Amino acid sequence: MQQRLGHRSAALIALAAIGFAACGGGGSDDDSSDTAAPVDTAEAVVDTEPEDTEPSDTEPDGTEPDGTAPDGAVGFNSIQPSVIQIEAIGTIRDPEVGLTDGSGRGSGFVISEDGLAVTNNHVVTGAATLEVFIGGDTDESYNATILGVSECNDLALIDIDEDDPLTPLQWYQDEITTGTDVYAAGFPLGDPEYTLTRGIISKLEAGGETSWASLDSVLEHDANIQPGNSGGPLVATDGTVVGVNYAGGSRTNTDQFFAIDKDTAQEVVELLKEGDFESLGVNGEAVVDEEAGIAGIWVAGVAPGSPADEVGLLPGDIIQSMNGLPVGTDGTKADYCDVLRTSGDNPIKIEVLRFDTEEILTGEINGDKPLEQTFSFAQAVEEETTVEEAATTYDSYTTVVDDTGALTIDLPTAWTALDTAPVTLDDGSSLPQITGAPDMTSYVETWDTPGIFFATVPTADILQVLSTFAPTDCVDGGQTDYQDAAFLGTYQVWTDCGGTGTIFVVLGAAKVDGSGEVAVLTAQVVTDADLDALDQAFATFNTTS
Questions:
Q1: What is the pLDDT of residue 8?
Q2: Is domain 282-374 annotated with CATH 2.30.42.10?
């Protein structure tokens, strides 16, 4: 049996040495901006108390009791036959909880007698089926087909399967001005009862960058809309369409709402008659998790046959970069849509985090490269080294957290020897660490037992980390660049350790965003099963500092 200075003992000595030699790493502050929420997910707070409590013969929206309109107002019933409720049925994949019911209801409106209708992309894309109810009639429903969608403009054109002529709405022909009287029609909160609310245009060019769309500007108005109003029309007093409602109030203001202006909507809808525009076939939203170091476009649904589907994107994936540009880092779809608008139909290289399996995948949209795992340590070393074939594999893993709560990593459940206490330095300070193995003594004293050591060190010098943790009785197998969704660094492979077939690996990596300290991970690989364990460790190690 090969005796040596134990790996863990050497690691702790190295940790202490680096602790004395280097200064601590710094953090970074990130200012977040208020963005509106899609109507389907907004939680609108509405003052329902009327300002005038005197008795009135008119309805709250200004119509007479029979639904007719006074001069200068649109009647409650006048546009109702053109407004539709859309029930999108299907599932989405949440990164944390897996497959969930993604069914929901939004609004829309008819624009042609033969059944063409407008709604939002986020209402329909990725749905398995669409069921349409016309004008609040719940006794009969119709199927609908998606003709074209635009993710970046959050618009969709659908075709309602109805043989009888429908009643279309017309687009507003006059210039929209601040103060223009408007009415929002639709089916808020998924309720099948048709509603109409009244307001004015309060701003002509409100910011259009949101977590689910990217428009140069949108209309801001105060005609109350709520979840379920997505895709419904915003109309003028003559019943013509001023805009397409798509967002309820921001995180700080729930009294203002947003619609895609009629000029943008008309232009995009004409393009959608020929198919998708500025779209990959994704129903998605920008997500940012600073604690986990994750940012990107979360894919809630994928349209069958779309470029996203063909490259292998799945609901629950997070698109992290496109053509080398990180996307979604500011909580909006701006960068994502800029790449789409620049690339057109040309290939787009994407990097994807498949969150539920902790895989990093790369591929080429509109190209011939489907998504494939971008890094596997087992694949990287299998042609260069030979390790013993394991009698059994690790069939389950456990997330291990150190005592300070600063480190997490997944280790084989079979590795019951765990040490999560921090290393105390001579100056009284401490550094967090996790060590795991099937047998701690054998791991420390021999090359015959696998194990993993994970810690953070206060240095920015990756090469110093590799040098400090290098073993003395192994053969240098060379250094390789390393990058995943959150970390960037270098790993070094050592072979024939102690005259055995054991492999020793040292990884030094810093967070991509520059925050926190350098992570160091060392692993003792005895069998091919340990390579799988190392892949899992590489995919899951993380720091909160």
A1: 52
A2: yes
